[in-house]
């Protein structure tokens, strides 16, 4: 089965397409990609749904390595709103 493994940083990402045997799990995909011990990985998701290393994968899955947030989303939203305000 074919799956995609993705990890991202601000302004860049890396994606690997893998051919794995049926019955493979998240841990198998990480090993095949060479991304087993990623220090900045907080969790994993398949198509945006959080999973663990024992979760089974199926054809076409997209496994995402999740990192801690760099900025609180509410703070970022406030900053964008403040930047849009014009003096006047």
UniProtKB/TrEMBL annotation:
Domain of life, source organism: Bacteria
InterPro entries from the UniProt entry: Mopterin_synth/thiamin_S_b, RnfH, RnfH_sf
Entry similarity comment: Belongs to the UPF0125 (RnfH) family.
Name this protein carries in UniProt: UPF0125 protein ACFQZQ_02475
Organism of this sequence: Lysobacter koreensis
């Amino acid at each position: 089965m074919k799956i995609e493994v993705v990890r991202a940083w601000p302004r860049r990402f890396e994606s690997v397409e893998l051919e794995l045997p049926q019955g493979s799990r998240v841990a198998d995909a990480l090993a095949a990609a060479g991304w087993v011990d990623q220090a900045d990985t907080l969790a994993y998701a398949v198509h945006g749904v959080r999973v663990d290393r024992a979760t089974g994968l199926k054809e076409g899955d997209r496994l995402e390595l999740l990192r801690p947030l760099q900025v609180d989303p509410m703070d970022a939203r406030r900053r964008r709103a403040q930047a849009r305000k014009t003096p006047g």
